[in-house]
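Issue: ligand-bound run for S-adenosylmethionine - logging full I/O for the record.

Environment: standard queue, default settings, no custom constraints.

Inputs:
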Amino acid sequence: MSVDTASRADRAEELRNALVDTIIADHEAKGLTMPAEVERAMRTVPREVFTPGVPLEKAYENTAVITNRHGDEATSSVSAPYLIAEMLGQASDALGGLEGRDVLEIGSGGYNASLLAEIVGPAGSVTTIDIDPEVTDRATACLKKAGYNDVTVVCADAEHPVEPSRRFDLVIVTAGAWDIPPAWREQLAGNGVLVVPLRTFGMTRSWALRRSEDHLVSHSHRQCGFVSVQGEGAHQMRYVDIADGVHLRLDEGQQTAPDVLADILTQPRQEAWAGVSLPPRTVLADLDLWLATRLTCEAGEFVILTAQEAAVESGIVAPSWRFGAPATLDEGTFSYRSALRWTDRKFDLGAYAHGPEAAAAAGRMVEHMRAWLDAGSPSPALQILPARTPTGDLPDGTVLDKRHSRIVLTFPTASSR
Ligand SMILES: C[S@@+](CC[C@H](N)C(=O)[O-])C[C@H]1O[C@@H](n2cnc3c(N)ncnc32)[C@H](O)[C@@H]1O
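Outputs:
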């Protein structure tokens, strides 16, 4: 090994360890623990091998590295390390450890497959599938270069089984899905686990779901974002402009009347505040799904508000999160969850609204926020059943119908668990 190669390898190791230290601290701040097997793999696999042409320092930033685009849209990336760590942690926790497991990864790149190969060890197996031949070619070359020769790389649409009779302990999806095709459940062994970034109400969470015969039951969830699933299972979101740099994100099939929206934000703003003080570490992503389930039961349409930084800075909107704040549109009145308000050493929850019924709409949204806090800030749970399941056989909860599945979302409280 030349001196240059050796010093680059030393520098990579230094950067890798610093990155893992950061991710562990980030996990702790979120109340999570990184399993030892995940930490060991992350301190071992050289991420720079899977991000060719990217400077070493960038390969060890805690962000995704985009590798393929179609037009403006990213279609493939080497996923962000913290997110990979969280999803591997979800899998490890749900299965009680991953050593010796048979794993199918949907969405290749090579980096996550190498981590999985490190974790499952020689007694396990890793198969990775991607729809894009450019991605599988690159993953194959990078896996070889990094020495992970036992990983099987397949180029196909993962909507269908990779091998009809093959069963896996873990299916881990690394692209954003709108639905769960039957093949993902059917390829799981009896108590197998599916980890999947799934969009419900326009919001994506990584769900760890355990198979129980023909349905899946959630074990954990994390907030996340991913490039979308392509191929037969692709479901596009649509953006409607409502002001310069401000958009409504609509899920497939959702309609809004653009004429109602044209000048909605120029109408006077009304606001309402819950008058609460949030406890530390409150996960507000859970509140957003709560709001979605409550607001969809009312008149009007549930939508997601997104805004560019400049639009937030100029004060046109002040959403709770500019990449996706829960919002409703009801007969010309638009309301959304606003950014938190910091007063008297308290973080308060609020809603802003514009339109003829603005004060009432903001007040209603805030009532739902109070109800969530009063219920003990519950986290959502999911059950996913086949589309053919009769309504009478569904568990209680908010039902979302997709092409292949009926998804039931609930918020178990301490007393209902
Ligand atoms: C975020 S990247 C995967 C990252 C990768 N797991 C890593 O190690 O960093 C998502 C990948 O999913 C792939 N993909 C999207 N839809 C797919 C489908 N229906 N079947 C298989 N792969 C798909 C894309 O081509 C893309 O390469």
